[in-house]
Amino acid sequence: MSITRAGICSGFAAVILMGANVVWAQSVPAPVANARAPASVSVAAATCATPGRNGCDKQCKRYADADTWPTTCEQAATNILARLDEASKQRTRDSTYENLIQFHSGWGMGIRNTTGLWRGNVALTDSCMALDNDGDRHPDHISMIIIQQIWKKLH
Question: In 3D, which of 61, 53, 48, 60 has the Cα closest to residue 116?
Answer without folding.
Answer: 53
